[in-house]
Amino acid sequence: MDLNKLRETAAGIVSREDVKYLIGWRRGTFGYRVSPYFIEDAAGVEELIFSPLCISNLATYLTLVERLPVPRGQQPDERKVALLVKGCDSRAVNQLLVEKGINRDRVIVVGLPCPGMVDWKLLAEKYPETEAPVEMRWQGDDFLLVHNGQEIVVPRAEALAEKCRLCRHPNPVISDATVGEPVQPWEPAEDSGVGEIEAKSAPERWAYWEEQFSKCLRCYSCRNVCPLCYCEDCILDRLNPTWVNRAFNFSENTAFHLARAFHLAGRCIECGECERVCPAGIPLGRLNRKLAKTVREEYGFEPGLDAEGEPFQASYRPEDPEEFIL
Amino acid sequence: MKNQGNPYIPHTATIVDTWYETGGERCIKTFKVVFDDPAVRESWSHRPGQCAMIGVLGVGESMISISSSPTEEGYLRFSVMKAGKVTTALHQLEAGDKMTVRGPYGNSFPVEEWKGKKILTIGGGIGQAPLRPIVEYVKANMKDYAGLTMIYGARTSGDLCFKNEFAEAAKCEGVCCHLSIDVAEEGWPHYVGFVPSLLMEVSPSPENTIAITCGPPIMIRFVLENLKKLNFADEQIYTTLENRMKCGIGKCGRCNAGHLYVCKDGPVFSYAQLKNVPEAFA
Amino acid sequence: MSAMLLPKDKWPEFTGRLAGKNLFAPALQGGIKKFAPVAAGDTVTLDEGNTTVPPKALLFPQTETLFRFAEGEEGMELPAIDEAAVLLGVRPCDARAMAIVDKLFRWDYEDPYYLKRRELATIIGLACSEPCLNCFCTSVGGGPASTEGLDILMVDLGESYLLEGLTDKGQALLDEFKDLLQEAGADALQRKEQLAQEAAAKIKRSVDTAGIPEALPGLWEDPLWQRVSAACLGCGICTYLCPTCHCFDIQDEVEGAAGRRCRMWDSCMYAEYTKHTSGHNPRPTRRERTRNRINHKYSYYVDKFGVIACVGCGRCSNLCPVNIDLIDILRQVKAAP
Questions:
Q1: Same domain, B91 and B126
Q2: Residue A232 pLDDT > 90, yes or no?
Q3: Looking at this predicted complex, what is its ipTM?
Q4: Is residue B268 part of a domain?
Q5: Whole-prediction pTM value?
Q6: Which of B14, B91, B244, B273 is best to mutate for the C interface (most C CBs within 10 A)?
Q7: Do C252 and B7 touch (CB under 8 A)?
Q8: Which of A158, B109, C137, C294 could be stapled to C142 by a disulfide with Cβ–Cβ 3.0 to 4.6 Å?
Q9: Is the peptide bond before B130 cis (omega within 30 degrees of 0)?
Q10: B105, B127, B160 — which closes off a domain?
């Protein structure tokens, strides 16, 4: 990855009068952490990075930023927002466009072909987090870790994030500018996580999810990080009527997760953020990928590939399978 | 009064009378309630300006100002605007139905300190409800105060609360009433315009006067500005705040404006206290 | 009060007997470390590090019933809180957090639920020897062997544990185990001091908190709040897993003709937390909410109760998925003009 080229591109974009800021990543404050970074002027691009640690999907900030009422006499800020996207992230942008959740004229998409990201938790056992932020780079097919001043080659298989092992779209599917050469897509691994669930009997599945949902803390980080969970008035926050009680127990927690999973069916672009942010380690990716897999295999539909396409739920065809309808 | 038992357990009270103050989608209904337990009736005491958590079991509770003065004995009054889940449920209640009450909570208007002074209330819409107890208290103890001036306005004449009481009060010696509505209506004999403008029209002297204001945040902001123009000192200006509350007893966290808990340190504050609290008028 | 030694070969018997006293200790449950009940026969292993979920969850459960009610019935039924419990292996930071939160729950109106559980719980602390990366207890008045909030402090001396009784409740518990314990000598106490100093020296991250409470009011409109909150997801991780965060919501649940009023953790980082019914929100964006979180801990609480409501456990920094790092925020507060 040519960081200079990226910073140059970013500087050009944020210098434009019609651009509010560019959302990218910068080195975090310690260990393996990387922080989403909002750049408002060309000077800010010096801290911009793109490394195997930039796993977070920045598309969520397109809808997360609060839209406050414009004070009387003032004009709304109509400037564009630019953001850096990997392949998976770009699908979220497309899906938001399909749903008219964002306006195409208001976003500038900077595509970054992605050789694959690291799940730092896989590394931390062997190379513990340090006070000083670590650096990582791609080196051939593998990763190079600079840890306590030492350069360590980490084999790809040792640290590649699960979502990247399963990735089918490492190159951005939408972009206004691309930095870097397209990467050669790799053969997606077998989804052993979903396979494990599919192999279970119904009672075993129930027991599995009961254990998982019981430990949910209801911190809503999965919902908030999800680029496609952007309802202004979320059913889960509704008090009147209260659809899901705030009480923390298996039943309410399950209602929460199932409501979210169903709302994401045919929309989830498998960026894996829900699972990454969960402090309780609930394998939410498996749940969402199972639904995505059903949509893909049964209906031949993959969301977020075509900004001009129609949403899954609006794409009924007479030949759609219906064996599961009782 | 410090609740000796479990502060989360409400008392049940029976509604003895209700009426609508205003109409429309966000109508205001007044409830007159009496505690079911004679011991609670006996021990209950509140001061003007305090609030209570009133509610419906199975729905929830809302912090509502006690709109009756302690000088009105034997019952409590609450005037409630229909807005959310709890207030909508309360609005379905009629005389004979039960509601729950716990409190009283918060501080109160320093009526003792104010003895010998002229009292000026400036209210807007439902904001008159927290001011009503001070009005009634001063009326009942007129000999202790140098006069009472009330400025009150609402969007339309149909949105004014306590209309009959204003008419009655105007007849009392030492009491002045000034009413306003935002837009002209046929047959409206009083002022037309916003409350802060009416305040300038009335132009009360700050001398030996305490001004108390309550209403929508935007109204409060302009009233404060105008009171300053009229040379009221910060210490002469009081307001009563509200914020979202759950516990009412300083535990649940949400009602703070800066370092002040509205439920415990308030709801009554002088402008001298609030002017440096950045969230107070947020 | 006494200082006793528990030889490690007596550990299984010690914990086995404690298990009969409604014992809770750190355990991995479905991949998440939290305080879990210990049954007779369970092995209790105290390893390094801290639990993801702080032990506050035992005294201030994520959801608890305040009372139950039923249609046509007078009065309300209160939950019984009458079972004594022993919490084993509580880190000194988390115990200090309890002592800090006690002040709030005792303030004026006493909170009977929290205080009853607190009274019924005997807290056995475990001094830290290997601080985690984001531990900064020594920056906020604590330390790896701080005793505040504890009934007994336990220190791993290698061959044995040193158990110091700190309160009558703690001492009474130690007295029950006299047969397993031996009097600790001056050398053991010396060793403890030495270990505590060594552990404190291993703390990597720190921030000079002096002056922060005084500086915060003047930084109300500082651009730092926009900067540090821009990436915030507005989720509840930092507050739910904070040992001093104590904010809650109250909701009613009804099933058929009966129901309960319950309270559950709430977070100042949620938009709904302060949103008025009218739709008006005094803290409309993540900027104001982040500012409130920091001010509540480092200014308002100091104002009201004379102590910073942060014990430097580092959970918020550790667990934030977008690297919103309290230590970094505090450093920015220090550096602000």
A1: no
A2: no
A3: 0.94
A4: no
A5: 0.94
A6: B244
A7: no
A8: C137
A9: no
A10: B105
